[in-house]
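Hi F.,

I've been meaning to write this up properly since the lab meeting, where we talked about keeping a consistent format for the predictions we share between groups. The idea is simple: the sequence comes first, exactly as it goes in, then the structure tokens exactly as they come out, then a line or two of notes. No screenshots and no reformatting. I'm using this chain as the first example so we have something concrete to point to.
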Amino acid sequence: MSLNAEAKEKIYSRVCDLVTRKHFDPGMNGANWEELSKTRRDEILRSTTDEEFEKKIQDLLNELKTSHTGFRHFKSPNIPGRHAISATFMRCNFDGDQRWMFQDVHEGGPAHVAGLRPGDILLQVRNRELKPPEPPIFPFDEESQFAVQKPDGKRVGGTLRVPSPRSKKHPVIVPKAVLCSQMPEGIGWLKVTMFPGAVGIDLAKMLDTAFAHLKESTRLIVDLRGNTGGGIGGLRLMSYLTPAKKEVGYSLTRARKEKGHVREKLPRFGRIPSHKATLIWLALRYGFIDKSILVVTEGLGPQRFHGRVMSTHQAPAKWSPLSPKRMASRPSSVQKLQGASSAGAPSKQVLAIWSACPLPHT
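Output, unedited:
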């Protein structure tokens, strides 16, 4: 049933109020939220369909230029491909026209299970031709027919089934979060597709297993292409990349920012629990105080690959799918990052990981 004028007015007012009261800082990227919300109001409320109403509010929120800020009905199919099918896209020229090409396809995700791979060019979705700027949409709990052209020129069709997400509040399909491989000449390859879980206990265990497998590596490739971010579990990855306990970032609530703070005096978070029973202790420690924290690596000690780590975050402008082996043989395809030159010095790759998994502001 479509929203009536009164319902749209109520929802719009609620969105504006939430941003004003709860957003960390609506003006942090130069947006004048009060002016924007007033000037866009009439146009948004004149929307003739629920889909148009949703899109226009999302367009308004995009003006804030902040991540983790969105508006959607819990039954809306408009979920980005990276969350729905564990794949990312980039525009490409195909037969003189613009098309979407699969850029990252994470193992274990719906796209990978359906046989889709990086470099495939998307031609049709649900028996309809699809071109940019219209985004590829694959609704949850549905099957979508697709047609693609493979890098060898062969056209292939199939069905992509997207399961229901575990959480309606955070709708995302979780692929294999951690993959690793020990390659020749002491090169280890580690891919992290996302940082699932608010605290990241399960992810930390996956990373422990991966680094145990890579213990003989004297050089390391950290592959974060297509990483969707997530919770604080990225701290375990940062901790493996620098030997000592080092401050790597902090998260402020709006209240603490407005009140003023001294970074060094913020409550420190420097250890991911090994058991979920410990979450009770965390709730008691952090549950009744301001949620601002200073994040510190766990001090896991030296690793053989320290000082010889390379990290790739996104594909270059002239993109082609790179396997771990090709990445190792083509260092220009990844971003070289300096390791710790002295014991305990924080390395640049640690800060790069932090930028990939920022804590949400309250």
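Notes:
The radius of gyration is 22 Å.
The chain has a mean pLDDT of 83.

If this format works for you, I'll send the rest the same way.

G.
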